[in-house]
């Protein structure tokens, strides 16, 4: 099942290290099947506060997403970004094909009703 690395990166001052990070990150993702789904795109904040940028990288599964993040190649370039730009990064599993939120809601409602009895 597809997994995603999602980053919320806060604006920082332009720096050569950030450019080097951007120039080299793709090569660290490729061995793990990673590809940018969102990068440098305009976003519109609908709720809350979201200063900065969102980056989404898709991987074939959670194992490969974690292996990429923990890889020597990525860990080597990671400080190029973290020294100059604050951010939050998560790995999250996607939903399977055919996912239906109504089915999940129905199961949740059933569990809630069972607790009331």
From TrEMBL:
Domain DUF1330: 2-95
Domain of life: Bacteria
Record-linked InterPro entries: Dimeric_a/b-barrel, DUF1330
UniProt cross-references to Gene3D superfamilies, sorted A to Z: 3.30.70.100
Name recorded for this polypeptide: DUF1330 domain-containing protein
Species of the source: Streptomyces tsukubensis
């Amino acid at each position: 099942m597809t997994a995603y690395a999602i980053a919320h990166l806060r604006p920082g001052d332009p720096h050569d290290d950030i450019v080097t990070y951007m120039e080299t990150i793709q090569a660290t993702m490729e061995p793990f099947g990673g590809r940018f789904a969102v990068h440098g795109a305009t976003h519109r904040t609908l709720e809350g506060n979201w200063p900065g940028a969102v980056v989404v990288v898709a991987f074939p599964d959670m194992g490969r997403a974690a292996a990429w993040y923990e890889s020597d190649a990525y860990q080597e370039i990671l400080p190029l970004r973290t020294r100059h730009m604050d951010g939050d990064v998560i790995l999250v599993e996607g939903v399977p094909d055919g996912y239906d939120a109504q089915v999940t809601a129905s199961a949740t409602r059933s569990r809630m009703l069972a607790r009331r009895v």
